Amino acid sequence: MGEVYVITSGKGGVGKTTVTANLGIGLALRGSRVVTIDADIGLRNLDVVLGLENRVVFNIVDVVEGNCRLEQALVRDKRVENLFLLPAAQTRTKEAVSPEQMIEVCSKLREVFDYVLIDSPAGIEAGFRNAAIGADKGIVVTTPEVSAVRDADRIIGLLEAMGKGTPQLIINRLRADMVERGDMLGVRDVLDILAIPLLGIVPEDEEVIVATNKGEPVILRENSEASKAFKNIVARLEGEDIPLLEFSPKKDAGFLGKLFKLFGGR
Amino acid sequence: MNLFSLFRNFFRKGERSSQIAKSRLEIMLKHDRAELTRSEMMEMMDRILMVLRDYVSYDRNRVEMKVKREKGETFLFISVPVIGKPSSRSLER
Ligand SMILES: Nc1ncnc2c1ncn2[C@@H]1O[C@H](COP(=O)(O)OP(=O)(O)O)[C@@H](O)[C@H]1O
Ligand SMILES: [Mg+2]
Question: A182 and B17 in contact by Cβ < 8 A?
């Protein structure tokens, strides 16, 4: 029986899709069988970030409407073995899949896969609830910005109220130089406020955008900071104890420098 | 990072924007989590403090309120630094 995670945030544009794609590839590279589900129906883009847009034939709405079998809708990744995508429909609305149908899809997939990763749409309404309903646990993504953290707090409350337990946090797009200057919330600040376990920190990294342009998630690039960060998150998901101070914000920063910059704040 | 920039940050005049962000967030989340507007919360605190005044004297400036969430439940924490007995106890009227 696989584990079902929903990757969510409340606020849009903070990196849910990027996280889902990279964790999916990372977990599959380590040998797990992984399926990612694009639950952002009507605004599908997980296929694009994964570079699989040309292989999409059927989608999740076709599955629940009986136009195809679940296996037929799964898109196999071209680079990594054991990674699949269940695409969203681009031309339908969120109501096209009911909560019951979502639960059923998740429970079928968890029989075959080790990990089911659901990329949630932004917002706190039906789309989010549908994405979360079939999941065991949540991963909340935020950036170190006031509105993103505020929305993350709402989502944490909603996940807990849905009985999904306390989610884990990924802080994305952290800029160590700005934290050091005192112009960005540091990791400590965000953790003080949200008070949930930290799964990982992903730095702001141009390589993410380059990777997205090419449809090759950044985790596949050897030498980028974001790639290292995602690999560490993947290892933590698999139960490895990887320290959180993993990447050096600037090449010349010493240990204390890293500590100060990353954890920043007060 | 060098020692100089560390010191400069330490003694920099004015609040850093990250600290402003943090304190704004703390206030916002209090209201979000407790589902109380600013005026409701102020009224509630005033009424609670009015009751307390009959029993203890406290440092009004250091009264703090926090709202925490745990496992789907919301908890209100109000901390009131007690100085001693009130000077005139209205109870003994
Ligand atoms: N760590 C990062 N560094 C730089 N750009 C990033 C990072 N994470 C995400 N982005 C960019 O931010 C944008 C929004 O990310 P996306 O994953 O689509 O967010 P969401 O799914 O939450 O709406 C994308 O253009 C993506 O390339
Ligand atoms: Mg997205």
Answer: yes
Rounded-to-integer distance, Cα B34 and Cα A139, Å: 23
**Tokens 């240990």, located at residue:** A255
Tokens of A199: 């799964």
Structurally, what CATH architecture does the domain formed by A3-262 represent? 3-Layer(aba) Sandwich (3.40)
How many domains does chain B divide into? 1
Mutate to test the pocket of ligand 1, among A18, A201, A209 (most ligand atoms within 8 A of CB): A18
| Domain layout of chain A by residue ranges | 3-262
Residue type, A13: G
How many C-beta atoms lie closer than 10 Å to residue A120's C-beta? 29
Please write down the HEC assignment for all residues of B13-48: CCCCHHHHHHHHHHHHHHHHHHCCCHHHHHHHHHHH
Other Cβ atoms closer than 10 A to B36? 17
pTM of the full structure: 0.88
Read off the pLDDT of residues B2-25 as tens digits, 9 standing for 90 and up.
Answer: 666 656 656 655 779 999 999 999
**Does any domain span residue B22?**
no
Question: By residue range, what is the domain housing residue B68?
Answer: 38-85
